[in-house]
Design brief:
Layout lengths: L1 H18 L18 H21 L1 E2 L11 H17 L6 E4 L2 E4 H22 L8 H14 L21 H8 L11
Parallel strand pairs: 1-2
Antiparallel strand pairs: 2-3
Helix pairs in contact: 1-3, 1-4, 2-3, 2-4, 4-5, 5-6
Organism: Thermomonospora echinospora
Protein name: TIGR03086 family protein
GO molecular function: metal ion binding
Length: about 190
């Protein structure tokens, strides 16, 4: 589980950096996630972090929607991220997590979490007007995982169709393009 945990930690650290750009004025901005403004994206991210925390703490993920934590969504996300990493660091390692009564290896859960957290960190940066690519080393590890974790069954409901990207594009650009986002420089707003 050390590899999955290390990947999760790097994704969380990248995303925490993106959260530094969030301001109250940015909450209504659109995001690369279809039909979501920044406030909705932050709420979704908090739900995801809470589910990943449950996975480590309880060994299962309940698919019920958690209550809205209210207050400052960025502060809630930072607190959830710290609690999440603490919970996974404190696990004995290995084992499985029940997701909707389906057992998954803990490393699969942490890898899926890392993918979601990193890509949504990119989404947050874009919504805030920042060109903040996912670090190359992190993206290179997430690219093959994205092919396993995001299939055509997930499209168009959870992910948009892939966007063309050059094979010579940066790994982060190829990753977000594979997940239906348009990489490249941000247009000036």
């Amino acid at each position: 589980m050390t590899g999955g945990l290390a990947l999760l930690e790097r994704a969380v650290n990248y995303t925490l950096g993106s959260l530094l750009a969030v301001t109250p004025q940015a909450m209504s901005r659109p995001t690369p996630c279809r039909d979501w403004d920044l406030r909705a994206l932050l709420a979704h991210m908090n739900d995801s972090l809470l589910a990943l925390y449950e996975a480590a703490d309880l060994g299962r993920v309940d698919l019920e929607a958690p209550a809205d934590p209210g207050g400052d969504p960025v502060a809630a996300l930072r607190a959830s991220a710290c609690r999440l990493l603490g919970a996974w660091t404190g696990t004995a390692g290995g084992g499985s997590v029940a997701v909707a009564d389906l057992p998954l290896a803990a490393e699969v859960v942490t890898a899926a979490g890392a993918l979601e957290i990193a890509v949504h960190g990119w989404d947050v940066a874009r919504a805030c007007g920042l060109d903040r690519p996912i670090p190359d080393a992190l993206a290179e590890e997430l690219l093959p995982l994205s092919a396993l974790l995001v299939t055509e069954v997930d499209r168009p409901a959870r992910f948009a169709a892939p966007v063309p990207a050059s094979p010579s594009a940066a790994p982060g650009d190829r990753l977000v393009a594979r997940l239906g986002r348009t990489p490249g420089p941000i247009a000036v707003r």
